[in-house]
Amino acid sequence: MSSSTISKQGAAGSAASELNENKDYLGFGVGLRSQHFPEIMACESLPVDWFEIISENFIDNHGYGRHVLKELRSRCPIVMHGVSLNLGSSDPLNWEYLEKLKELADFVQPSWISDHLCWTGILGHNTHDLLPMPLTEESLNHVSERVLQVQTFLGQPILLENPSTYLEFRQNELSEWEFMSLLVKKTDCLLLLDVNNVFVSSFNHGYDPLEYLRNIPHSSIQQVHLAGPTRAGNCLLDTHDQPVPDQVWELYKVLLEKTGPVSTLLEWDANIPSFSEVVAELNKARLIFEGKPYQQLENVDINQASGAFSSPVVR
Amino acid sequence: MKESCLKKDIQLRQLQNWLQEVLINRGDLYQKLLGAQHQTNFTLEEAIKETEQFPAIERINIYASGYIMRLVEALKAEYPLLCKVMGDEVFEGFAKAYIVTHPSRYTSLYKLGAKLPEFLEETQPKGANCPDQIGLFKIPAELARYERTQAEILLHHGLEEYFYYPSETSITSLISIHSELLQASPCLRVLKLEYPIRTLAMSLHLNDTVTTPQRTENWVALTRKDYKIVSLQINDWQAELLEALKSPAPVYRALENVKSANVAEVLLWLPTALDFGLVYYPK
Which InterPro entries does the annotation name (chain A) (predicted)? Predict the structure, then answer.
């Protein structure tokens, strides 16, 4: 990338120095999972501040899930998180999907809508995985243009999440935080920073997660994800199947110092425990936010697993 | 990696094409990579960075194996009884073959398994002629159809939002049903099956010992009530009547399309059909 086209260091640097002025603070939430529907519907008083739904699980779903959603939307804020927007794909945008996403948003009235900085397929295929982008100027221009189109269509800024990645393309010209900083600058989109994904990707690619956290534009971070990864040989996999490890809590603590209060969500998508256990894990984030001594938390090691895979199916 | 080996002019589309080919091609990882190279003229070394601890082949394998495992898990969740009947190993074999043959083109995983029943039908060996052999292949295909139908019903529009009138069996109400406008539930599905799949499914649910059922043609009506699946064994005239009520019609008119119905029998059955959510009074 030529220095005359985009001053990438400048973009990241100036954004990072801004103070957080996020007025859309929702508090602490969890991902809404069908396994927890009975417990949640039986709650007189919800023990979480808000829920995040996987948009695709509710598009074209007119069964019990839609009923639960109808009940919950009047009780607490809900945000919509998608996995099939396919923003980074070189295919044309899927307008049929976008129409359905908008229909769901009209029903849910979410606080915001998010998806990922990734692609999921080309030539009409969907791999149902969050595949890594080549971090190039071409990609940046391509994704920026599509983010602008999506935001215009939905009538609101969208949030983009940093995915966990296991490979980097040789053609990369930018780091992920540089790419995201420039994307924010070009589109005014917001960020969903997955702290676990920063940890996983930095481990897998050998960069410093603190450098990532220093350079991401803090004022654009509207939401944070927390989750537990799995160790598989020489790498970490984003499995969302266990408690948040100490390293991720440490990074979360560092991030909070930079962002101030930021809506925080715990994801747990495989080996899902009871709702109360998920809430107990979320409450560790509250402790950290309240500045309670970190030592109050249990030490959590990252489990090893040979048959694990990333980005589990969420129902 | 020498700089001269790098293809700097590679476009986004080419890189994505290469990675997707690695994921969805048939074969083991090396065959997938060869296939992708053949189709895109692009190699692993040209595409992926690596470190000594974490070589490029292991990095790409996370995506290639994760792709299959994730979708197999999704199919297992949609077809738990089929998986129980086949056993994990056989089910996974079919699921992998299905995923490679019908890569997903849907934004929702709900649609991933839509063609699995047909896939099982199509992959039955030709020439099987003894009853046990035929059943061995036909029963899983019919069970898959049964489970897929259930999955579709759970997501479809149902009658839960609809105001429900408890049915009565007084003579007056039975006579009034005869001229009332009735309609099949929007999520009702009627299956014609060659094996007693409903009984088999119930036994599997209850973890009962299961033996290969004998061939016996039958009808099953599947619908949803209070967001739960209702499954009923029905007979020929009941299936015909439900078919005739796909569009709203007075019962006497719908009965014109039913060959062997006894009116008294029909009137006595309709309250049950209303109670189970097979039919309703459209507004």
Answer: MbnB/TglH/ChrH, Xyl_isomerase-like_sf
